[in-house]
Design goal:
The complex is a heterotrimer. By secondary structure, chain A is α+β, with helices and mostly antiparallel strands. Chain A has two domains: 221 residues, MetI-like fold (Orthogonal Bundle), CATH 1.10.3720; 94 residues, no CATH class. Chain A has a four-stranded antiparallel β-sheet. Chain A is elongated and about 85 Å long. By secondary structure, chain B is α+β, with helices and mostly antiparallel strands. The longest helix of chain B is centred in the first third of the chain and has 28 residues. Chain C has a two-stranded antiparallel ribbon. Helices cover 80% and strands 1% of the residues of chain C. Classes of the chains: A alpha+beta, B alpha+beta, C mainly alpha. Chains in contact: A-B, A-C, B-C.
Chain lengths: 366, 679, 329
């Protein structure tokens, strides 16, 4: 049998294949997909990639600027860093660090560090560590914060927290959106009116009081994890309206399509029509809407942290790191802490482009 | 005996103790090398009072113009016959200028109250260690300590030109303080030995506070920022009706006694208030009501509840400089609203404020110093006298979690927690090395200080001893992360640190303490809360410990609420204990801890003691409190709270170092009315 | 059609009522009440309040009663135009909001102008020159506007404009001007302060709008009538501006409804960071201090504005688009 021609392939391809082929043509979206996957991989291995305990404070390492790792020692590949000595200037009150070039501290791969649990396994293995590190020595790829904590390590953990918040949050809004949007479209009538009115009310409420009211109502003796889930739910409670509108719109327009009518004539039950015929045909639209909703979740999390609601230290999230950088002394004395914004920007950009690509690809015949 | 001589007698009795401690205060700082190197900590200085009354008086040009136009009586008639005479710090100044300053909203009334602090009856001098006359030109404490007599200045006037007399005291006492609608419950400051005192008019310029028991502490109460002695601006604003005098001629129109309940209620309704009491609370509030007659150097023209809080000079202010110029020198005070601390600090660096110490953030000091020439200001660091800017106030009345409550009531547990904190690290990180690590005990220079060894007691990092103490309490089992487990249910023992982001970034401090405690196996759980919610939690007694300053406790008798459970609305040591103390045992719960009980009894007994005995008593209380670690100190005696002072280079008479303390009403005791613009 | 308008209006009223209930509920959610917050404040400034006094204050403000009673009291007063007194500002709520509403509107309007001034031309350009370098560059820039947390951006811009150019720091007036009555000098002072916050505020919205404009216009450009117009030899500029752009603007009209609440909500954080005397920070403070009447009024105001906005944009759409008009009938 001869290989099918392009047009034949097109004709017999499933909807998913068509979407994928079309998506692949969108270069920026492909790059974004890679970026998003990388970030989630990083989130999974956050503790492994961290170079030091993200909670450990030390006055001797306060506000250290990013320190490069020197790769070659005497021509051989033996990465090392120099020791640092910090002194507070009595006139300017700034901490001045000088390199102690006489003392090289060698970098070790697969080193032993602080203990953490990975997929239920207790371990202390880290990608990078220092051999024979003295007091105050450390790898500071992105520098340290006021409390002397390593920014790189904190950023790793924060990425995990913020990305999962986004994911969990979107799942909840997705559930609410599909359910309420679908119900609204299928039943119509007063159900539709009630749900649409509800959406209008939620959208008319300024978000800030909603956040403040709901977040302040959380009991104070909740643990960090409990608050974490509560915040996620709060954010997603406000984010479902857009998804509900998309779903409702799609349902309404698909109902008129021939294949749905055909299925109805063939005697398929309503549930079967919805789950076997309608949902798959606009799943890609939903995925696109979801990937556009994720950045909003992440931004919401940072805004909540800024307002002192959201997650609170000792939890580490992007919002908390950004809030830490939100002061004049950081801008003037430790601008490297602003680096926390870089992954936030990258991820939001990537999700946006990904969403754009998916949306374009969702109309394979368009 | 003439009035003047009586005053001298009383003052010199006080000075005997105080002069030496004032010197000690100044020395304590200048000997410390880390501060002298920075050149930012000067000598304690300020204006002094002069006994010689100038022969002639002058006034600000715009007031002179009003006098000329016949709209204002001449300055001699506006001043009392014996005005307060201030010897400015450097020189006699010139009139004019607007003092630009920041405030953060209607809740920031203290910002202005403190500038108005010379409406207090008695005050402290610039060292914060000597009581000096203020609105009252002299006072006399009877030998038995049961009566304190105040002598007013003859011919003194309210800001609207009406006479200020003993009747204004009687009005406050009879019509406000004793009126249950206005002041629902009597205040502890007006009682001695558990019995309320009386305020009595002797003649037009003499009033007397009479008590049934000795109350030797009372003059200090009058000089301090207490409910009785705070003065009109702080004590009759924000819905409070304390202080000791009020403008009778103005306020009578709003009180039912002088017309009828129906009439004042109608007045209130017409003006948009629910009741006459609501209206009175606004009408007697100098921050809100520009019409209200006051005694301080300036008066409100644009109220605090607008985006700008503005004041102009009070033409009847009762103070002159040594050359006879009526104070203040500066015409206007304009405070602009900025809701964010970062904005305030940045504007201060841009030179947009002329003198600002409130809301200035110590952790920005390097940036503030960098911009000195650009913003044309000088930076002064004023060091406080209280033991700890960051203290852990332990809730010894905690019952919600019986095991935690039992541990919090165990001295060795508290001591172990205290030993587990690395104070040097905290000092370096949050105070830029400018604080003094130690316990909650006040600076050694204070007369109530128990001595240098008590600054160190239980307050130097010792992980080994801390661990040993915790082990001996039976907290020996640990989980995988090295945290100690509860003996009752095998769960991890969690100690909550309730922290509010207020004057300092206390949640961050708490975060660091929790990290230090990892080494002694204690899991410290930082609970950051908004201020209102936090205090509510405290009132409910749910907290384990609160991270807050112990500012004020350097004068233990005046401000004991951050040292012992005495105050039902403040402090974090157990509301039931405080109720018990405040009600003389009628309500609440008697403390089980015999040493806590002893400290409280000593505190109660102090009112009837003479100064020397009182100081010794305070030292005894401090020894108990530090040894028992009712509160864990970290770092104090620093400029962190209102001690980073940015002063425009155009201003003169600015002290190199000022007293920062609750009782000094920073910057009140530096008398802002003596500051002036050089050009 | 009149029936439709009436129905929309009644639905709008109903929505407003729902919003008022929701806002009152939310404001009451946190434990404790205004008096607790107030006591905390006084305690911090060294003025203790006794428990009896706290009770008296509560009685004064009617705080002890059940929530539906408080709501009933509030809403029956609101209907008569009496919004009550702000407990924190100790002034009538209308005055407190009145102080700031004009500056808020001015700032929002300035931000809106900048947003549209940037978004429309860029959106059109990006659609017409799809996948060109310019399209990518503008899109990327626009997205960065969404992606950078704007509170951080606000502080960074404020700090560096002070550090490098000695610019005015925050606020909408300089200290000297705040107490002056309105004059040309004061208006100029405001004009000097306005651009910075307006631009920062506009940045986030711009990207969104560029994207909507681009997508809408792309849809229109593919339609047969455009192809026909081109085939008939109309100039490219005319082809694009005559109908497709106008058609693409339709969804904008429906978006106006949410613009004002978005600007107020979105400007809260920026206004706090930049120290702007607008309604946003007032709302946050009122919520934190549990100043019920003030917070309730602001939330209600924003809700009403959205509903009115939706109503107006419905009318506008009906006017503009005959298709919609016919659907209604």
């Amino acid at each position: 049998m001869a290989a099918p021609s392009d047009s034949e392939r097109y004709a017999v391809a499933t909807q998913w294949q068509l979407t994928w082929w079309r998506f692949r043509r969108h270069k920026l979206a492909m790059v974004s997909l890679v970026v998003v996957v990388l970030f989630y991989l990083l989130a999974v291995s956050a503790d492994f990639l961290a170079t030091s305990d993200p909670h450990e404070t030390d006055a001797r390492t306060s506000y250290i600027a990013p320190q490069p790792i020197h790769l070659f020692d005497d021509g051989a590949f033996r990465p090392y860093t120099y020791g640092l000595k910090g002194v507070r200037d009595v006139k300017t009150f700034k901490l001045i660090y000088t390199l102690d070039t006489s003392r090289k501290v060698y970098v070790e791969f697969f080193a032993r560090g602080y203990r953490y649990s990975f997929l239920g396994i207790e371990t202390d293995l880290h990608l990078l560590g220092l051999k024979d590190a003295g007091k105050g020595d450390g790898i500071h790829l992105l520098g340290t914060d006021l409390l002397g904590r390593d920014l790189w390590s904190r950023l790793m953990v924060a990425t995990r927290v913020s990305l999962t918040i986004g994911l969990v949050g979107v799942s909840i809004s997705l559930f609410l959106g599909v359910l309420l949007g679908g119900v609204s479209a299928i039943y119509g009538g007063w159900v539709d009116t009630v749900i649409q009115r509800g959406i209008e009310v939620v959208r008319s409420m300024p978000t800030i009081p909603l956040w403040l009211g709901l977040a302040a109502a959380l009991p104070n003796d909740w643990s960090v994890t409990q608050i974490y889930f509560a915040i996620t739910i709060i954010i997603s409670l406000l984010a479902w309206t857009d998804l509900a509108r998309v779903v409702r719109g799609k349902f309404l327009s698909l109902r008129e399509e021939e294949f749905v009518m055909a299925a109805e004539l063939a005697g398929a039950g309503q549930t079967r029509i919805i789950f076997h015929h309608m949902l798959p045909s606009f799943a890609s639209h939903i995925i696109a809407a979801v990937s556009l909703a994720l950045p909003a979740m992440i931004i919401s999390e940072t805004s909540l942290s800024f307002l002192g609601l959201g997650l609170r230290p000792p939890a580490i999230s992007w919002g908390i790191l950004l809030q830490d950088a939100q002061n004049i002394q950081t801008l003037a004395l430790a601008p490297w802490l602003l680096f926390s914004a870089v992954p936030v920007i990258l991820v939001i950009l990537a999700f946006n482009f990904l969403g754009d690509g998916l949306r374009d690809a969702a109309d394979p015949y368009g | 005996m003439s009035t003047r001589r009586r005053f001298m007698a009383a003052a010199s009795a006080m000075a005997a103790v105080s002069a030496s401690s004032a010197r000690a205060l100044a020395q304590a700082v200048n000997n410390t090398s880390q501060f002298s190197a920075s050149g930012l900590v000067g000598t304690l200085q300020g204006p002094t009072q002069s006994a010689a009354i100038p022969k002639t008086f002058q006034e600000a040009p715009q007031l002179a113009a009003l006098v000329k136009a016949g709209k204002l009586p001449p300055v001699e008639q506006r001043l009392p016959s014996e005005p307060m005479v201030l010897q400015p710090l450097e020189s006699v100044g010139r009139y004019g200028g607007t003092w630009r300053r920041a405030f953060i909203g209607p809740s920031d009334g203290e910002n202005g109250n403190r500038i108005m602090a010379s409406d207090k009856l008695l005050f402290w001098d610039y060292t914060g260690s000597k009581i000096v006359p203020c609105v009252a030109k002299a006072y006399e404490l009877s030998k038995d300590g049961k009566t304190t007599t105040l002598f007013l200045r003859k011919g003194m006037k309210w800001g609207d030109g009406s006479p200020f007399t003993a009747d204004d005291f009687v009005f406050w006492y009879e019509d406000m303080y004793l009126n249950k609608d206005i002041v629902p419950s009597p205040i502890a400051e007006m009682s001695a030995g558990g019995k309320q005192g009386r305020l009595v008019k002797i003649d037009e310029t003499t009033v007397q506070f009479q008590f049934d028991n000795p109350y030797f502490l009372f003059p200090s109460m009058l000089a301090g920022d207490t409910l009785i002695g705070g003065g009109q601006s702080v004590r009759q604003s924000g819905g409070n009706s304390y202080g000791a005098y009020a403008p009778a001629h103005y306020l009578k129109q709003f009180m039912p006694k002088y017309s009828s309940e129906a009439a004042v209620n109608k007045l209130a309704k017409d003006a948009g208030y629910a009741t006459w009491v609501r209206m009175l609370h606004v009408k007697k509030d100098w921050q809100l009501n520009p019409e209200l007659p006051t005694l301080g150097p300036w008066r409100t023209v644009k109220p605090i509840n607008t985006p700008t809080w503005a004041m102009e000079r009070n033409p009847y202010y009762y103070t002159v400089d040594t050359a006879g110029n009526q104070l203040p020198y500066i015409d206007n005070v304009v405070m602009t609203l900025a809701e964010d601390i970062e904005v305030i600090n940045l504007r201060a660096m841009a030179g947009e404020y002329d003198l600002q110490e409130r809301h200035i953030d110590l952790s920005k000091l390097p940036v503030i110093l960098e911009n000195r020439d650009r913003g044309k200001y000088d930076v002064h660091l004023d060091l406080a006298y209280n033991g700890a800017d960051t203290a852990l106030h332990i809730n010894m009345g905690h019952t919600a979690d019986p095991l935690v409550g039992k541990l919090l009531r165990t001295a060795d547990f508290r001591r172990a927690l205290a030993l587990g904190i690395d104070r040097d690290q905290m000092n370096e990180t949050f105070w830029l090395g400018l604080g003094t690590p130690g316990s909650t005990a006040p600076a050694e220079a204070m007369p109530e200080s128990p001595g240098p060894e008590w600054r160190k007691k239980w307050s130097v990092l010792d992980i080994k001893q801390a661990n040993a103490m915790l082990d001996s309490l039976g907290l020996t089992k640990k989980d995988g992360d090295g945290y100690r487990l509860r003996p009752d249910n095998g769960q991890r023992l969690v100690i909550q640190l309730l922290a509010i982001k207020a004057f300092m970034d206390w949640p961050k401090h708490a975060e660091m303490i929790a990290q230090h405690w990892r080494k002694i196996g204690i899991y410290g759980d930082v609970k950051e809360a908004e201020r209102g919610l936090a205090f509510q939690k405290i009132a409910a007694g749910e907290h384990h410990m609160l991270v807050w300053t112990n500012g004020g406790t350097e004068l233990l008798y005046l401000y004991p609420s951050w040292a012992l459970p005495v105050d039902v609305s403040q402090g974090a040591y157990g509301l039931d204990y405080a109720k018990w103390y405040a009600s003389n045992g009628a309500l609440g719960k008697k403390p089980e801890d015999p040493l806590l009980l002893e400290a409280l009894e000593k505190l109660r007994a102090a009112a009837g003691m003479q100064e020397a005995e009182r100081n010794k008593n305070a030292q005894e209380i401090w020894k108990i409190m530090v040894d028992q670690q009712f509160h864990i100190g970290t770092v104090g005696q620093s400029p962190a709270l209102m001690g980073v002072r940015l002063a425009s280079r155009r201003l003169a008479n600015i002290p190199g170092r000022a007293c920062i303390a609750q009782h000094c009403r920073t910057p009140g005791s530096s008398h802002p009315e003596t500051w002036f613009y050089k050009s | 059609m009149i029936a439709f308008v009436v129905r929309r209006f009644l639905l709008g009223l109903f929505t407003v009522w729902l919003i008022s209930v929701a806002s009152f509920t939310i404001i009451q959610l946190p434990p404790g009440d205004f008096v607790d917050a107030y006591i905390a404040q006084l305690a911090a400034s060294g003025s203790p309040v006794s428990a009896t006094e706290a009770d008296m204050l509560r009685k004064l403000y009617g705080l002890g009663q059940p929530m539906y009673v408080q709501y009933g009291k509030w809403i029956s007063r609101v209907v008569t135009g009496d919004f009550g007194e702000s407990m924190e500002w100790r002034r009538p709520v209308t005055e407190v909001i009145g102080d700031r509403i004009w500056l808020t509107l001015l700032l929002s309007f300035a931000a809106l102008l900048i947003t549209w001034g940037l978004a429309l031309p860029i959106g059109i350009y990006s659609a017409v020159r799809q996948y060109s370098f310019g399209d990518y560059a503008f899109t990327l820039l626009g997205f960065v506007g969404i992606a950078v947390p704007n509170f951080l951006l606000a502080l960074i811009i404020m700090y560096f404009s002070f550090k490098l150019f000695g610019a005015n720091v925050g606020g909408l007036f300089s200290s000297e001007m705040t107490i002056q009555p309105w004059s040309w000098a004061k208006a100029w002072d405001l004009a000097k302060h306005l651009p910075l916050p307006a631009v920062i505020l506009a940045l986030a919205g711009t990207a969104q709008l560029i994207r909507i404009m681009r997508a809408n216009l792309l849809d229109e450009l593919r339609k047969p009538y455009v192809v026909t117009a081109r085939a008939k030899g109309l100039s490219e500029t005319r082809v694009i501006l005559k109908y497709p752009v106008r058609a693409a603007l339709n969804p904008f009209a429906s978006n106006i409804a949410y613009l004002f609440p978005f600007l107020v909500s979105g400007s809260v954080i920026i206004s706090i960071v930049l120290g702007l005397p607008t309604v946003g920070p007032l709302l946050v403070k009122a919520l934190v201090a549990q100043d019920m009447f003030l917070a309730g009024t602001i939330v209600l105001l924003l809700g009403v504005m959205t509903v009115v906005g939706t109503f107006i944009s419905d009318l506008v759409l009906m006017w503009v688009d005959p298709r919609i008009r016919h659907q209604m009938d």
